[in-house]
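Page 47, continued from p. 46.
Same chain as before, 117 aa.
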Amino acid sequence: MRLAVVAATWAKLPTSGIQSALSLDYAEIEQAFPVVYREMERLELEDLLAAKSQRAFFAEAWGALYLRDRLGLHQVHSRRASCSVKTDYVGRDGAIRFYFRQDSRAEMLLFKYCGQP
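Result:
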């Protein structure tokens, strides 16, 4: 997995709850901000996500809802074709954004798999 973190500041939090989102396209974010992806092993990524989740007081996510034994969210990563999935979904990427009180900082996490541009 490759991860990029796009930092920004926030003045107002998004509305809480579940809403239908507009298109999210990593290519547009990569054009607007300096984005650097780095390889991460699974356990390192899990630890980083747990640490950010504990520090954040609000989170926002883009992905696909599912309902099994409970409500969940998946597809919070790039949906472009990869080494394992040949289907290319443009404009349907997923992501997670954490909001922190310190310095009104927000961090959007972008995830890419092998073979994704």
